[in-house]
Structure formats: C-alpha cells, structure tokens
C-alpha cells in the first residue's frame, strides 16, 4: 500500500479480489438466510405445540365481523366458554363456482324504466352493479340498473332527469362524489 503526501493510504483491488469479496459476501448471506430458515422452522408457537400434543380439536372464536358491539355504557359481555370436547372440527366444503345466469334472469326487463334522459355511471357485472347502485342511492341519487342488450353486463344509471338543468346539476353531483357519467336517452 502506498502512502500519499497527506499520510492517507490508497487500496487498489483487481478483478479477482473484487469477485472474491463478492462471492464471500454472497456465501455469508446464504449461510445467515439458511440459519434463519432452520431456526424459524424449528420454533413453533406455544399454542401450536399444545395443539399438536393434544388430540382434542381446537376451538376457534367466531369472526370479529359476526360479533356485535355492546351498546354505549354497557360493559362488553363475556362469550360463553366453549369446551373442546363439545365442538367438532369443521369439515372444509368444496366451493362450486356458480354458472353464469342468462341476462334476462339478472336484471329487470328493459321496459321497467320510464323513458327519458339518464346518466350512465357504469356497465359491469351484476354484483358490482347492485353494489354501486346502492352506494349512489345512499348518496341521494335516483340510481337503477338495467341489462345491456346481448351481454352479461348491467348498466348503472341515474335518472330519469327532466331537463338540462337537472342533467347538469346531477352530473356535477356525481363528479363531486367521484363518478364519471355519460348521457343515455331512452
């Protein structure tokens, strides 16, 4: 190593030394990863160890979404204690996909909506269309759904709107709520 005038040393590495350092670092990282993997696989939580040593079925609390919050002022009620011997493990059920329904069975007939001017917000599948129409109704818009001819899509429309002022104000309200729309006349 050569020292310069200020007393500092300069280290020069060739290609062989750089590759050697790189491969040593890669090997060390691989060793550390493998050790972490082995330690992680060999340690199990205490609840899992108890469940694996005990042949009784494990009791699972109901999902949080099905629990009702207690009214304000009342202390939360304690759930009844379940005994492991009384509950049987749930058998997984195979979920069969639902075959697509014909368009006529999905939505109202075309003549169900009065003629007039509507704002179309979306054309999507039945479940999303109903959900979107419910959201629009909760925001105060007169939303409805109708089938798209010769398609499995369902239109989400707002209306009927009587004049251009109603169309403009409704369209502005939809844009303020985050929905884009196009005009459809029936």
Descriptors for this entry?
186 residues; alpha+beta; Alpha-Beta Plaits; 4-stranded antiparallel β-sheet; two-stranded antiparallel sheet; 35% helix; 16% strand; elongated
Descriptive account of the structure:
The chain is an alpha+beta fold and 186 residues long. Among the domains are: 13-53; 104-185, Alpha-Beta Plaits. It has helices at residues 15-42, 46-53, 103-106, 126-138, 164-176, and strands at residues 2-3, 9-10, 117-124, 143-147, 154-161, 182-185. A hairpin with a 6-residue loop joins strand 4 (143-147) and strand 5.
Predict the CATH topology of the domain at 104-185: Alpha-Beta Plaits
Helical residue percent band:
25-40%
Q: What is the CATH architecture descriptor of the domain at 104-185?
A: 2-Layer Sandwich
Contiguous uncertain segments of 5+ residues: 102-110
SSE order and pairing:
Layout: E1 2-3, E2 9-10, H1 15-42, H2 46-53, H3 103-106, E3 117-124, H4 126-138, E4 143-147, E5 154-161, H5 164-176, E6 182-185
Antiparallel strand pairs: 1-2, 3-5, 3-6, 4-5
Write a short abstract of this structure:
This protein has helices at about 15-40, 45-55, 105, 125-140, 165-175, and strands spanning about 1-5, 10, 115-125, 145, 155-160, 180-185.
